[in-house]
Amino acid sequence: MKSIKLYFEAAIEQGASDLHLVGDEKPCLRIQGDLQDVEEKVLPPKELETAVLGLLSAEQKKKFQEKLELDFGLDVKGVRFRVNLHRQEGHVGLAARMIPAEIPSPEELRFEPALNNFTDLLDGLVLVVGPTGHGKSTTLASMVEEINKKRKAHIMTIEDPIEFLFQDKESLVEQREIGTDTHSFDEALKHVLRQDPDVILVGEMRDPETIATALTAAETGHLVFSTLHTSSAAEAVERIVDVFEGSRQKQVLIQLGAVLRGIVAQQLMPSVQGSRVVAREILVNTPAISNLVKENNIPQIYSAIQTGAKEGMVTMDNSVKQLLKDGLIDKEMAEKRMGKQRRI
After folding, report:
1. 3-state helix, strand, coil in the chain (%, to 5)
2. What is the distance between the alpha carbons of residues 167 and 15, in angstroms, rounded to a whole number?
3. Tens digits of per-residue pLDDT, 53-71?
């Protein structure tokens, strides 16, 4: 087996979004959404495991042996990767996501007006949701970077691992990594409120404790950004509520209805140029939406988005139609992505 760093370098040279190295399988890259083999030979499991463990610190090796899972950041030739290690069928597996060196601008990401407005907020909760690999971290990083460029603020990020690296511009930016700088999202969030932040980025709201603390932070005058793995704004509200026991759900609905500022649900799709382009459903928390959330009338949220264009709201179908109208995707792709059922 050749040096493991060469596979990362191949990902950089070919502009891949992801690298997959799995014992007894061919190494492959994801390029513009499609998996492609790097070479025909399968990776010898023992050699791969030795090479992978060679990337880790002693503490990381210990954690991987205990948990059989590990997320960490890796720099190769000045390019940052978010790496996940795991085991499958007794062999080690590695999945690495390449993080662009430059944080893309709102113009490059085709931000709608509502997304630009979210960066002007002083408090509340803004969520970016969608499947894994559909650009949630990139959208959040671009919004946080706009704040960094525009105003004096203390920005704290809590990530697992750190992805985009921010350079202080107008703001003071501190980035904390789970496992290196803090033990958990929950622990970090409990203490972050004593660190005088204006803006808090929580990499992912994974558990009831993290969600509860994020809601409290948003309630007490902080602007909080985070992500969830759901495919729509309504599902995001449902997911947050369902995490809690029945007796607490009413309180969470009232809190969420008050602090929520917006939800962006996004998905990447192949463009006619061979790259990928983003479609977004956008919810802006108006008094009408707030009441729907507080009353747990989640099925009505989609209708409210449909009628909320004046407030900057966009349905996923209308976003896809706009991409088609702008000539960025073809009719076949638009038909596959519109409606409730996504098709291959």
Report:
1. 40, 25, 35
2. 24
3. 999 999 999 999 999 999 9
The answer to whether residues 233 and 281 touch, using CB atoms and an 8 Å cutoff, is: yes
3-state secondary structure of 1: coil
Instruction: Give the separation between CA 237 and CA 165, rounded to whole angstroms.
Output: 29
Q: What domain range includes position 293?
A: 113-337
C-beta separation of 316 from 323 below 8 A: no
- Name the DSSP letter for residue 200: E
The neighbour count for residue 3, using CB atoms within 10 Å, is 10
Structural domains in the chain (count):
2
Are both 285 and 213 inside the same structural domain? yes
How far is the C-alpha of 196 from the C-alpha of 177, rounded, in Å? 18
For residue 264, tell me if it sits in a domain.
yes
Strands (E) in 271-341, as ranges, are: 276-284
CB 258 within 8 A of CB 252: no
The C-alpha atoms of residue 121 and residue 109 are separated, in whole angstroms, by 20
- Token output for 292: 């729907």
Q: Which amino acid is at 134?
A: H
Q: What length does the chain have?
A: 344
The helix/strand count (H/E) of the chain reads as 13, 13
pLDDT tens digit sequence for 9-27: 999 999 999 999 999 999 9
Task: Examine the fold and report which residue of 74, 99, 124 is the final residue of a domain before the chain moves on.
Answer: 99
pTM: 0.89
Task: Please state, as a whole number, how many other Cβ atoms lie within 10 Å of the Cβ of residue 112.
Answer: 17
210 & 233 share domain: yes
- Quick one: 339 exposed, middle or buried, by C-beta within 10 A (0-12, 13-18, 19+)? exposed
Would you say residue 108 lies in a domain?
Answer: no
